[in-house]
Write a structure and sequence with these properties.
The structure holds two protein chains of two kinds.
Chain A (H helix, E strand, L loop, with lengths): L1 H14 L7 H19 L4 H16 L7 H17 L6 H16 L7 H32 L7 H9 L4 H7 L4 H15 L7 E3 L4 H26 L5 H4 L1 H12 L6 H13 L6 H16 L4 H9 L2
Helix pairs in contact in A: 2-3, 2-6, 2-13, 3-4, 4-5, 5-6, 5-13, 6-10, 6-13, 7-10, 10-12, 12-13, 12-14, 13-14
Chain B lengths: L13 H19 L22 E9 L2 E5 L6 H9 L3 H13 L2 E4 L7 E4 L17 E13 L5 E13 L5
Parallel strand pairs in B: 2-4
Antiparallel strand pairs in B: 1-2, 1-5, 3-4, 5-6
The chains are: A mainly alpha, B alpha+beta.
Chain lengths: ~300, ~170
C-alpha cells in the first residue's frame, strides 16, 4: 500500500503541470468526459438518444464545439424533455446528467477564451458540481431513512435474492446457489404472470444473505450520508477536506456490485470538476477511476471462480 | 466594439435549485400518494422494494359467468408502465375503458385461469377453430404490488387500486 501511495504521489508530481489537468485543459477534459458519457450512456426514447449521439460525436470530432454553451444548453434541454416525457422510466442518473449539462451551459459564457473567463467557468462548474453531488446524496439518504423497508435490511435482502444485478454477489458472499436464485426468479415470474391469481410466493434464502444485506444496508446509508455532509459542508471544514476520498470510496465500492456505470461516470466527472486547482492527485484519481469503472463490468466473481477451478 | 455581456455570478444556483424543487416535489408526491419512490427524480432508487417492477396489473374481462384474465396489448404498454410507476384512479380507469373498447376472444396461453386475447392480436393457425368474440359485460383492472417479508414466506402481494368498467359505459 505504501509503495502504491509513493508511486501515486510521484505520478501526481510529474503530471502537476500537465495541461489537461489544469485551466482550460481541465475544462476541456470535463467536457470530453461528459461527451463520452452522453455517447455511451444516453438512454431512453429515440428523440433523446439520437440528438445526444449526434451532438457528442460532433463535439468529439470538432474540439471547438466542446466549450460552446449552445451545445450544452441543447443537450440539457433534450435530456430534461426526455426525462419529462418518460418520467415513469427515467432513472436518477438521467436527471443528474441533465442537471450537469445545464450546469455546463450556464458556466460556459460566450467568451471562454481568456484566462479570467476560463477561471470563472471552472469556479462556476465547481460550485454546481459540489451542490449537485451534495444534494443528490442528501435526498438519497433521506429516502433511505424514510423508507419503511430499508433500515431493517429488507430492501437489500430482497435485492440479493431477486435482482440479477446482485446474483454474483449473492453466490460469492451470500452462500446461495445459482439454482436457488433461479427458483426465486421463477417464483417471482409466477406471481407476476398476467393470468396469475397468486397473492404470495416463497423465496429461498440463507443466513449469509441476511448478514450481507444488513452490512450493505448500513454501509450504503452511512457512506451516502457522509458524502452529502462533506459536499455540503462549508469550505475548509474537516468533512469538506475529505470529500473526494468519500466520493471515491462510494464509487469504488458501489459500482463494483451495482453496474450503473452511467451514474458512476457522471459522479466522477463532477468530482473532477469540483477539485481545486493544483489538486493533481485527486484529479488524477477521478480520471483513473473513470477508466477503471469500465473494468468493473467484467464478470469478476465468475472469472475468479474459473481461475480457482471451482 | 460591444463589450462582452456579463452573466450574473449566481447563475449556477439555478441547477441546485431545480434539483431541489424536483426532488422535494417527488418526495411529497411519493409520500402522500402512490408514486413509486424510485421514479420522479427524487433519488429514492435502491431505498425500497416498492419499485415499479414490484407493481403489476391484473386485468379481467367478464363474459357471462366467466372472468377471463387478459394481458393488455402492446399498444397500451406505456400506459401500463405509467400505472406501475404512479397508479391513480384516473389512469387505472382509463386503462379499463380502453380494454373495454377492444373485442376479445377466448384464448389459452397454457394457464389454469381462463384467458382472453384481443382479436387481431394473432392469426389463428390453419387447424384452429375460429373463435367467436366474447360477449364482454365488464372489465376489471387491479393494480397490485408485492412486499418482501424476510421472516415470512417471501413475497406477498396486495391490491393498491381496483376499478370495474361496464361495457357500454366505457366512452
Amino acid at each position: 500500500v505504501s509503495g502504491l501511495a509513493t508511486g501515486w504521489r510521484r505520478l501526481s508530481a510529474r503530471l502537476a503541470r500537465a495541461p489537461w489537468l489544469a485551466g482550460r485543459g481541465a475544462l476541456d477534459l470535463v467536457a470530453t468526459m461528459t461527451l463520452i458519457l452522453l455517447l455511451i450512456y444516453s438512454e431512453g426514447v429515440w428523440f433523446v438518444r439520437l440528438p445526444l449521439t449526434l451532438l457528442a460525436i460532433a463535439a468529439l470530432l470538432f474540439p471547438g464545439l466542446r466549450l460552446d454553451r449552445r451545445l450544452w444548453l441543447t443537450a440539457a434541454l433534450v435530456l430534461l424533455a426526455g426525462n419529462l416525457w418518460t418520467w415513469y422510466d427515467a432513472d436518477n442518473h438521467q436527471y443528474v446528467i441533465a442537471y450537469w449539462c445545464l450546469a455546463l451551459a450556464l458556466a460556459l459564457g460566450a467568451g471562454t477564451g481568456g484566462a479570467a473567463s476560463t477561471r470563472s467557468a471552472n469556479d462556476s462548474l465547481a460550485q454546481s458540481a459540489r451542490w449537485i453531488v451534495g444534494l443528490s446524496f442528501l435526498f438519497a439518504t433521506a429516502w433511505k431513512l424514510h423508507a419503511p423497508d430499508y433500515l431493517d435490511g429488507t430492501f437489500f435482502h430482497f435485492a440479493l435474492l431477486a435482482d440479477s444485478r446482485f446474483h454474483d454477489l449473492s453466490v460469492w458472499l451470500g452462500d446461495l446457489r445459482l439454482a436457488e436464485l433461479q427458483a426465486n426468479r421463477t417464483a417471482l415470474e409466477t406471481l407476476l404472470h398476467p393470468a396469475g391469481d397468486l397473492t404470495a410466493v416463497e423465496f429461498s434464502g440463507s443466513t449469509g444473505i441476511r448478514r450481507l444485506a444488513v452490512g450493505m444496508t448500513w454501509w450504503t446509508v452511512a457512506i451516502e450520508a457522509l458524502v452529502a455532509a462533506a459536499f455540503l459542508s462549508p469550505a475548509g471544514s474537516l468533512p469538506y477536506r475529505i470529500r473526494d476520498g468519500l466520493l471515491l470510496a462510494f464509487i469504488l465500492t458501489t459500482y463494483l456490485f451495482a453496474p450503473v456505470t452511467g451514474f458512476g461516470w457522471v459522479l466522477l466527472v463532477m468530482g473532477f470538476a469540483q477539485t481545486p486547482r493544483g489538486a493533481t492527485a485527486r484529479r488524477l484519481a477521478y480520471v483513473a477511476l473513470f477508466l477503471a469503472l469500465q473494468l468493473y463490468r467484467a464478470p469478476w466473481p465468475r472469472l475468479v471462480d474459473w481461475m480457482l477451478g471451482s | 466594439m460591444t463589450p462582452p455581456r456579463r452573466r450574473p455570478r449566481a447563475l449556477w444556483l439555478l441547477v441546485p435549485a431545480l434539483l431541489t424543487v424536483v426532488a422535494v416535489g417527488q418526495h411529497v408526491l411519493a409520500t402522500a400518494s402512490t408514486l413509486s419512490p424510485w421514479k420522479g427524480g427524487g433519488f429514492g432508487m435502491f431505498s425500497t422494494v416498492d419499485a415499479p417492477v414490484a407493481r403489476f396489473v391484473r386485468a379481467h374481462v367478464v363474459a357471462g359467468s366467466v372472468e377471463y384474465a387478459v394481458d393488455p396489448p402492446a399498444a397500451l404498454a406505456a400506459r401500463v408502465r405509467i400505472i406501475r410507476a404512479w397508479p391513480r384512479p384516473g389512469n387505472v380507469d382509463d386503462l379499463a375503458r380502453r380494454l373495454a373498447r377492444l373485442r376479445w376472444t377466448a384464448a389459452d396461453f397454457g394457464h389454469a385461469v381462463p384467458t382472453a386475447a384481443p382479436i387481431g392480436g394473432r392469426e389463428p393457425s390453419a387447424d384452429e377453430e375460429p373463435s367467436e368474440p366474447l360477449a364482454v359485460e365488464s372489465v376489471r383492472v387491479a393494480v397490485w404490488r408485492y412486499r418482501f417479508d424476510p421472516a415470512g414466506p417471501g413475497l406477498e402481494a396486495e391490491t393498491i387500486l381496483e376499478t370495474t368498467v361496464a361495457v357500454g359505459e366505457e366512452r
